[in-house]
Amino acid sequence: MYNLEDKVVLVTGASRGQGEAQVRYFLSLGARVIIAARELNDAEKLSQEFDKNKTLPVKLDVTNEVQWERSIHAAIEAFGRIDVLVNNAGLYYNAALTETELHQYREIINVNQIGVFLGMQSVIPIMSQQKKGSIINNVSISAFAPLDGTAAYASTKAAVVAMSKATAVEVGKDGIRINIVHPGGINTGMAQTSGTIPIYSQTPLGRIGEPKEVAHVIGFLASDQSSYCTGAEIVVDGGLTLGTRIE
């Protein structure tokens, strides 16, 4: 188990699904966690389960630059530093390209792509002053193995991969690492809406993944045990992108 004692971690989309699992795992490793969610009530509800000195709930719509500024200010005021950012918030959308309206495409770009851009832009100056930091962008296997009907969704995920790698080159000299996690099918509300759950019984591991399994990988990338990893991509998909078994 990795030691994140007293590291300060900010997780977006933190009140449910993969984000909630990440919050719980980070706290179990001794970290202090900023629980960032679009609805403050949701963040506060999760925060109440833990030591109030270990968590900070904040309202954060990742597409809103002002809310990023406020959240970062609150985190620094409460904990004095930010060691780790997990850009976890995301929006799933499934429709043929020709049936996707421009406003829908712009919405998914705003959340999945611009949200990550604003997050990295917000924490990099702080991490540069600290001469150390870890940013983990929770992306998707759709970035390189898209499902039918995910042209809009997959394109935003692929863009984040390129942005992550280019930024990792820029900020490595300042001791900042940027890495990428690619979940496959994970048992959350998003998987339920995608309608793909039946296929996971045919994957090499024969099941859908659990949110905590993604959190464990993110915990490694947040820790000093991954100190020589930057620009890396780790796939957490039970072998789905290797192929499926014939029953």
TrEMBL record:
Top-level enzyme category: oxidoreductase
Keywords, alphabetical: Oxidoreductase
InterPro entries assigned to the protein according to its UniProt record, in alphabetical order: NAD(P)-bd_dom_sf, Sc_DH/Rdtase_CS, SDR_fam
Any GO BP: bile acid metabolic process
MF GO annotations: glucose 1-dehydrogenase [NAD(P)+] activity
Transmembrane segments: none
EC numbers on record: 1.1.1.47
Domain of life: Bacteria
UniProt entry tagged with the keyword Oxidoreductase: yes
Pfam family membership, one: adh_short_C2
Homology family: Belongs to the short-chain dehydrogenases/reductases (SDR) family.
NCBIfam families named in the record: PRK07231.1
Name of the protein this chain belongs to: Glucose 1-dehydrogenase
Organism: Virgibacillus salarius
